[in-house]
Structure formats: structure tokens, C-alpha cells
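Ticket reopened. Same input as before:
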Amino acid sequence: MNRLYTIVRAYPTLLRIGLAEAIAYRAEFIVWMLTTTLPLIMLVVFAAAAREAPIGRFGQADFAAYYLATLIVRQMTGAWVVWELTMEIRQGTLPLKLLRPLHPLIAYSAENLAAIPMRAAIAVPIAVVMLIFTGRAHFTHDPLQLFTFLVALCGAWLLQFAFMSIIGTLGMYIESALAVFDLWMGLFAVLSGYLVPLELFPHWVQKVANVLPFRYMLGFPVELLTGGLTRGGALRQLGLQWAWAGAALLGARALWRAGTRRYEAYGG
Amino acid sequence: MIEVDRLIKQYKVHRREAGLGATLRSLVRRRYETVTAVDDLSFAIGPGERVGFLGPNGAGKTTTLKILSGLLWPTAGAVRVGGHIPQRREVEFLKSITLVMGQKQQLLWDLPPVETFALNRAIYDLPKASFEQTVAELVDLLGLAGLVNRPTRQLSLGERMKCELVAALLHRPRVLFLDEPTIGLDVSMQVTIREFIRTYNERFGATVLLTSHYMDDVVALCPRVIVIDKGRLTYEGDLRELVHRVRPHKQVVIKLARPVAREQLAAIGQVAAHADGQATLQIPQQTLNAAVSRALSELPVVDLSVEDPPIEDVMRELFAHPTQRPPS
Amino acid sequence: MLRYARLLGVEMRVSLALAAQYRADFVLEGVMSLFWLGWNIVPLMVVFGVRPTIAGWSFNEALIVMGWFTILRSLLEAAINPSLLAVVEHIRKGTLDFVLLKPADAQFLVSTVRFELWPLLGVAGGAVLIGDAFVRLGQAPQALHVAVAAALLLLAALVLYSVWILVISAAFWVVRLDNLAYLFNAIFDAARWPSSVFRGFLRVVFTFVIPLAMMTTYPAEALLGRLRLQAALGAGLGALVFASLARLTWRRAIAHYTSASS
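Engineering reply: fixed in the latest deploy. New output:
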């Protein structure tokens, strides 16, 4: 209970500092946001492909809606805790963080969350552009689905953060946590719907994607936003998403505990 | 060898205040102010000399060294090292100098120092025979046999500094700029490095310009010192002279057979320290003999010694009251 | 000149020694390189799986573009990225001074600090892709076309290097720029597609501003015998201008670092 109290007290300050940092390093920040170019590139490619005839149910406007939604979801849920963790582990400054009464992962989460206002500042104009160009027809109007989308967005962020923490924590065990991260991102690109809408893959790929967590970090919220799901289906998948999030968080916590013990034993 | 004439160096830094409001404002507009790091500095150093650069933190010592080695351009004034203009960074000039920075290293971290040596050899274009001879001499002088083949990260701080010196001296520079070379080292290592620098200077006739926070470095190595404070030269000349000038006193340390009242001591000279068994008095040079005679006759003296005041004290006083000490 | 050649040799040997220090990493990187070679074809297969031709390019033809992309990106990761990322570290730690104190050209030193070995697999992999595509097309490129393509490849490498030098020069002003590597890679990713996919405004950008078109599409077109002479000459000229611009900017950056301009 004491631990929880510490967190609740410290969190607002951590958020404020995180925001100040985001503004201080704004150049770097903008660059990070700009690295999310893949949806735009794929949009251009698929728009070219769909020039003559739609692909599956996707015409050019559908692709535009899909990829712009992907861009927004990605911007709002990205977590870079992997970089921070690997840096801290490599530079040996992690022990300092471990001495504090606040779990370092909670501190990182505050930093990441604090950056969201700035990301939203970029994502919102994009959303407006989206609406103008593609028309409202390609997005869901159902208020329940929109609400579910917001919840799913939070779930996606949590899931992403948890897995990124796991990968970062691997840095306490192996030298090349970043190689694992690259691998992860490669799988993510294909199996989450980031590269290509999952619908356009052959069935067996879709089956595999449904079993893995990647889909719930991106594809699921995007499908909610572009109106591709039934109400019942949406709620069921929401449950799955949060189940994954819970499992990942527990996994992150366990791995962290084991990792710090090992890290402290070896002196970093 | 080194000539500095009316050197001035100014920077523009932007001022950022704390707080969220100021941070947001700095997004749009930034305020700059000019900082003068070096202010009208002039001095000359002859070949083969060993000169110490003294001054508090932020006095402009490192900035001056960087200007002398060509890393920074002066805002105004003329600088010449070995007849070259440093900021032109001519190949001949760069081959004739070396800069060692105590807090930064050029050694490759994961590889043994010999790899860094090989790299430097290629960069400085050194013929094989003389390169190997130089390495052998330096390794011998510094006692590094066997260590240079171990990865740098496995060496202790002192060993790393010694290897750093080897890497810096491979090309037999004629001018050595040493910026705090003994910082963070233990006392015996400091002595080793000092001895090495002295030997190197005497054997090869290299000019040495040294900055250090450790007075012992300067006392041991540098017959001549240049004192800088807030970018301005406050003293130049012999170190002993400086001590006399700032504190024209001697410290007389007296061991007493039995406790003596403070007033009795104060009658002889200014009391710097007073305990039951020992007292320290500060006596001006001129009256030293008379004061010592008085102490011997009036006090129950067991032992008496006359010392120079600690250099640290001298420096502290020098920097605390800069306007009271006109340059020589 | 000879001195610089010798220096390059030593730098490469040092990089190799460094890679050999961490053997487990070495093996892991080798395995990952092979994995990525295969994985990178997935987008191409997916897109062309749904349509036989896109913007006038068939799968096999697009495979050639993909092959050049792989070669270029491997060169980038083998010879250009590692050194220039090291520079950002130097600037951050303040050890760039040591580079500037050496009697050799700073740009050269900074560009040859580190090399990575495994990405060279990608060069071979890209060549295999191109070869495979031509086998499927049932034709072989003419010798002249191969020569032009090779020349374009060198020019493309020069442009890539120059872009990087520009990025690094920016690092002198804005210190924390290690993520610019990622931005660069993200934008460069567009080069895996034939440039005719991009229309209008984007097309102009990717041909003249960030000349991705010339890096991968032009060499592919050259091999297929479809490249117009003006385009090739334009690319050559543009590359040289870019390189000069980069060199000038680098020198300005160094001058700024040494506060010549204050």
C-alpha cells in the first residue's frame, strides 16, 4: 500500500517533468515522430496498386483511411522505453534508479505518457486532414465503437509499453537487446497490420496473427476506427487485448525482478 | 616557442531559466548573452620550458589551451606556437603538438592500447623503426610492459592514463599541452606521472604547458607559473615569488612543553593555530629572526620549524582578493 | 593519397578486431543478417501477390529495384552508418577534439572510424535477387547497361554518404541526433519501391530533393535498358553537386564547432 501511495504522489510530478523534457528536446522529438513513415509509403504503394480496381474491399479511399488511422494509432501508442533502458544498462546508471523508492518502469511509463500531448498535437491535425480527404464514410460513426476505440487505444499503449519493457529488460541478460528489438519490430510490421491490412493476407497468416499479441497493438484499434468490426466482435477482442496486456505486464514485472537480481549480482 | 598577444575569447550562450513557462517561451524566442572566457591575455613561453597554468574553475585555462592547440578560434588577438598559427591547423603544426585531457581519453575502449598506437602511427605517418623505438622507450619509462596488450577497459584508471600518455607522445611532439593530467589518480600515480613529464621534458627538450588543480603538480614541475582569473592574467613568474607576494609570511610551527596562553603567543606573531601542545604563528619575513629569538627565549619550546605557507592557502587568498594583487 | 589508403587499411583492421572481441554478438549478427535478407522480400511479395503489375512494373522488374535497394542499404550499414553514429557519440562525450587535433582530414577520419562486416552479406544477397529476377525474365542485361548501372550505384553511394555528412553536420548544432539515423532509414525505406509508384508532389521530392529514385530505380531501369540518357547524366550531375554541398556544410559545421563564427 505504501508503494502505491508513493506512485500516486509522484506520478503527476513525473508527468510534468516528462512534458518539460519533451519540449526541451523538441527537435529530437519531432524527428522521432517523423520516423513513422511506413504507413505513408505503403499508402502510396497500395494506392498505386488499387488504381485500376480495388483490392479486396479496399479501394484507394479505403487504403487512405486505413493507413492514416494506422499512423495515428502508431503515434499515440509508440513507446521508446527500450532505448532508455538499454542506454541506462550499458552506461551503468541503472543502479541509481534502483535506489529510488519508485519502480523505474513506472518512472519510464510516466515519461512516455507525458509525451502524448505533444504527439496528439501532431496527430489531431492529421485526423482533420484525414476526414477532409477521405470523407466520413470510411470511419465508424457508432459512438459505442468510438468509445471502444479509445479504450482499445489505451490497451494498445499498455500492451506496447509492457512488451517494450520486457525487451529492454532483456538488456540485463544479453548484450544485444536491440537486435531482439529489431526482430520484434520486423514481426510487428507484418503481423500487426502495420505493413498491410491483415485482411489482405492469406488465411493462414491471419490465423497466426490472431493468436499473437501484435494485432492488438495496432490492427485492432485501427479496425475499430475504420468500422470493420461488429459490436460483439469488438468487445470480445477488447477482452483479449486487455488479457494480453495483463499477461505482458505480469511478465515484465517478473522479468524485471529476476533481471535486477542478476544485474546486481554481476555488478552491471 | 609560444607567443600569446592580447588574446580575447568570447562566447554567446543562451540563457534558459527553469520552470514550465520559461521552457515554453524558449520554444519561440531565445535570449543570448556574451561570456568572456579570455580577456586580453598576453604571455610568452620559450622552448624547453615547463610552465604551470593556475586558476580557479572557469578561469579560462582550458579555453586558452584549446586556442593554443587550434581547437578554438580566438575572438581577437594573436597566437603563435612554434611559429605556426594554431587555428590554421596545418599538418606540420598538428604533428608538433599534443593535447592530453585528463578527463577524456582517446584510447579505443574495447581494444588493447597497442591498437590505438597502431592507428595513431598511421595517422601521423610514422616510420616503423622509429615508431617501435618510441613505443619501447615510453613503455619502459612508464612501466607498462605487458599492460598495453590488454583491452583498455580492463586497465585501472592510472594505467589508462599512462597508456594515454604513450598514445599522445608517439609522434614526439615538441609542445605538450597537459590539461589536468593527474586528475582522479592516487598519490603515488601522480608522482609517477610527474616524474615522467619531467624526465620527458629534460630528455627531449619538449615545451610543457600544464594546468592542474593539484598544487603538488605545479610545485614539483613548474618553475614558472601563469595565474589566470576570470580570463585575465593576474600573475606571471616564479612560483616562490608568487607565494612571497601573496603571503609574505612564514609559518612558524612551535611544539610546546606545556600549554601557553593565547595572548602570550599573539604578542610574538599572528596566531594561525593554537592547541595545547602546538601552535602555529604567522610571522612576516622581515621580522622573522627577531620573532624566532623571542619565541625561543619566552616560550617553553620543544621544537620549532619555519615553513612556507601551504600553497593552497596562497591560491585561495589570491583568488579571493584578485584586485589586491597587481601583476608583476 | 597513399598515406590515406594505408590509414584506411588500419581503420578497417581495427574494426575487424573490435568485432572479433565480442564473438557471440558476431555470430548473432550474422544470423540476423540472413533473416533480414529473406524478411525484406515479404512486402514485395504481399503487394504483388494481389496485383500482377503496379505502376507499370511487374514483380520481376520490381525485384530488381528491391535488389539494388538491398545492396545500397547494406553498403550504408556496412560502411557509412557505423562511423557516422560514432561521431554523434564523440560529440556527446566531447572527444571529437581528439579527431580535430590529428594531422589528417577530419571528414576522412570521422567517416572511417568503424566498419561492420555482416551487412556485406546483403550486398551478395541483393546481387542474387537481381540475378534471380533476370533468370525469371528470361533475359540477360547488356554489358553497357551493367556498366551504367554500376556507375549509378557508385553515385548513389556517394549521395547517401553526402546525406549522412549533412546530417552529421547538423549534429554540431543540435547535439542529440542519434535518432536521425532512424529517420534517414525510415525515409530511405521508400526506395525499395519503383519510383513511378509516387505521383505528383512526392515524385518531385523523391527525384530531386531526396533522390531515392536515382538510387534504386535508375540502376534497375539501366539494367533493363529503359533508362534515358538525360536521366543518367542528370543523376550524375546531381550526385556531384550534392557531394560538394555536403563537404561545404561539413566545413561550416567544423568552423562553427571551433567558434569561428562567434
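Chain C is about 75% helix and 0% strand. The longest strand of chain C covers residues 53-54. Please confirm and we'll close it.
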